[in-house]
């Protein structure tokens, strides 16, 4: 712990330094508020103890300047008996505590330690809240997670469109939310829509809205998602599933920044940032004529590739611990923990369903487990298919075939549950509607 002592009287500064040194606490001295601010440019401090009244910049102004410069350092104020009112005002301005002269040296040490402990606890809670806000997708210290965070930092402050690619369940929406949260638009809405999960006849109305009487059943005006997003971010998941006629309309929105509701006659300006995602090989869709090349270039100004969980095996124990803590609270199993061998089993598994599958595995394990310990046998991990390598060969362009990976995962889940599509969907962390669509698409019926 390192403390900054600020007082215009040299003998007081030296006395305070001696008091702290006897407790093994390092300190630096400054004679006024301006000198204290200069000290912060050269060192970092865990707390400040300062006199209230000093020539030049006093303790009250120092607190305000520290706050203005974003220095979240607790301040303990020292005041004379007749200055209690000023000390209280300092507390309201952000001081952690105050002492009245003369004071007991032990009381000073206790107040400083309490202030530092309180600040550190607040920092940990805030960090935890930020982690929870971004969900669990990229907890981890591996190079893949760090590289992804660097990409997010680079693009968060701009307004450019972003295309997020990665396998199903890998955390593409988590990335989109993190980009939004770190952007200047963070106080505006984040609106997400799964393009592949809405019937083709309804998606246009969802995105652009409609006027009363625009079609049968349109009994009232409906505001679309572009308008609901306002000046925030609109996340279009599974963009590769967008029907061709809507691709034309989306391209026009990106070019003109205007929409028109179904049945409407006037253009409505829109300003939301567009973030999109796909688990498909979108370049192949462009080559096959199933996705417009001009729209692809508009959406792909910046690309973020989300790594699959099997490429982050070192992060699985940390991620599993975070998810278990979240599930403990949700499922009322406060003492649940991993037995020996459980984390090793998780780390050795390839997780074709990625983070979503990991969370589902843990949730199911909490239900199956006898007692508070989750054993490896409770995890019910899918065995590798004897007919297929769970990690498919690289595609011609060097990237893994996402379609083959997804088809293989669905095939193995169906085999495990004897063709029960509802249970297979639960296993993979997708909806029954989505698995039915995928079964039809891959000819698994």
Task: Tell me the number of helical segments per DSSP (H or I, 4 or more residues long).
Answer: 18
**CA-CA gap between termini:** 65 Å
What strand order characterises the main sheet?
2-1-3-4-5
CATH H level, superfamily name of the largest domain: P-loop containing nucleotide triphosphate hydrolases
* Number of strand segments: 16
Question: Can you put this structure into words, describing what you see?
Answer:
- By secondary structure, the chain is of the alpha/beta class.
- It folds into three domains: 2-131, 3-Layer(aba) Sandwich (Rossmann fold); 143-305, Rossmann fold, CATH 3.40.50; 310-442, Helicase, Ruva Protein, domain 3 (Orthogonal Bundle).
- Helix content is 47%, strand content 13%.
- It is built from 18 helices and 16 strands.
- It has a five-stranded parallel sheet, with helices on both faces.
- Helix 16 packs across helix 17 (421-428).
- The longest helix has 29 residues, at 105-133.
- The radius of gyration is 29 Å and the shape is globular.
- The relative contact order is 0.08.
